[in-house]
Design brief:
This protein has 185 residues and is mainly alpha-helical. It has eight helices and no strands.
Length: 185
């Protein structure tokens, strides 16, 4: 596949994913996985998990960060730019339209009901993300990562520790674990 057709496919894929998802990065990530790992086979599942972890740890919206990393991985700087464009255009357009009619939308009973229904759908998709990514960690049967996953959940849910500190701590644990792992020569 030529770079031009790869970039076109990257743009149309990220544009479509961004245009037809509601709920942010945690919703778009499993759809990106299906598109770029399962369907197009541009990256493997482990690399998608790594890109997701980096996208979550980096400042900014997770969906945009993931698109940048994915685009760069697939087609370099041009791919990163194109995937950013494909990811930000639909919400930019939607928010521009909504901002023009904000008062009417805010007080509309139907719009509020639709948004509540969408929240339920988004919650289900987030549960799917947790199930999918958590299942991958459990399948590896690595007690350190399973414990880290449970400790992270408790830290956020029970102790209400800021997610920033949890992500940094998990990154350190992963780095330490990788340095202790024997290397294949």
């Amino acid at each position: 596949m030529s770079k031009k057709s790869t970039c076109l496919k990257l743009f149309t894929s990220t544009l479509r994913l961004s245009a037809f998802t509601f709920g942010g990065g945690y919703v778009i990530i499993p759809l990106m996985k299906k598109q770029f790992v399962d369907d197009l086979e541009w990256i493997d599942e482990e690399e998608m998990m790594n890109l997701t972890a980096i996208a979550q740890a980096a400042p900014g919206p997770v969906a945009v960060n993931a698109a940048i990393l994915l685009g760069f991985r697939v087609a370099g700087k041009t791919g990163a730019f194109i995937s950013i464009l494909g990811t930000i255009l639909p919400p930019l357009f939607t928010l521009s339209i909504i901002s023009l009619f904000y008062t009417a939308f805010r007080e509309n009973v139907v719009v509020n009901a639709v948004l509540k229904g969408m929240n339920a759908g988004v919650a289900a998709i987030i549960v799917n993300v947790v199930w999918s990514l958590g299942g991958t960690i459990v399948k590896e049967k690595d007690i350190v990562y399973i414990g880290l996953m449970l400790a992270s959940f408790m830290a956020t849910y029970i102790f209400e520790i800021n997610i920033f500190f949890i992500v940094i701590a998990c990154g350190f644990v992963g780095a330490i674990k990788s340095f202790r792992k024997p290397r294949d020569v």
